[in-house]
Design a protein that fits this description.
The chain is α/β, with parallel strands linked by helices. Helix content is about 35%, strand content about 15%. An eight-stranded parallel β-sheet has the order 2-1-3-8-7-4-5-6, with helices on both faces. It is globular and about 50 Å long.
Length: about 290
Amino acid sequence: MSSEKQEYRPFLGSEIAPSVPQRARFHVLPVPWERTVSYGHGTARGPATILNASWQLESWDNGRVPAEEGICTLPPVDVTGAPEGVLDRISEAVGGILGHGSVPVVLGGEHTVTYGVVRGLLTAGIGDFGVVQIDAHADLRGSYEGDPFSHACVMRRIVEAGIPLYQLGVRAMCAEEAAAREQYGVGYLDAEILVPGGIAEFDLPAEFPEQVFFTLDVDGLDPSVIPATGTPVPGGLGWYQALSLFESMARQRRLIGFDLMELAPIPGFHSYDFAAAQLVYKLMGIQSRAAAE
């Protein structure tokens, strides 16, 4: 779906005036890219839907107003053409955000978008960083349906680039991905441990980088929370558990940005759109509070 056919409203524009890039802590980057989804479709509509739903949010969050630190919503990335070109444009946009000293908040789209974001972090030369992922799937296949840039391969491309990875909430993967975890030293706490145990805090390995980029596929949450995604898997994280895990990570490391991927809106079910927008703002609040401590 072409980004020109959708309306991209500023995040939380009902509550605050959009900030100029130089004064915004958070830069929201919509990337409506959907090319390789393998089951349900509709993630190209995710970014615009989240932005629209954000107009129903309250700005107060846990004793603070994160929006007061400035939110700038950027134009959507052009997602037409070959994958390498799209990834380059995502990378360039992320580099521009970092050039302002701001926090990238990227809205997808299929999960392949995150590889473009990571390439932007690498190109910007920010130093060592790791990726922490909440997801139902490991996304560590070498290729899927003959495509190395499939959404099912995004974390494989990232670990091949030498980026440390830690996974939370995975509950669907193949033997190839289990082997890739071993090969690339991927850390993990899968859903079968986290969910029955009600685990809401965890410790990253001591050697994990001080800087962390966080990526959230909405299918990492249980479908009872957000079923609006292409590949829902039962047995996922609850709302407060997911937020607590993110907050646990934020207390341990410096969060340099985050993304939210794979929302596939279901027409007429606005609660799922609102939940995704609320999740983005909650993550902004946690990042802001952690940085202030």
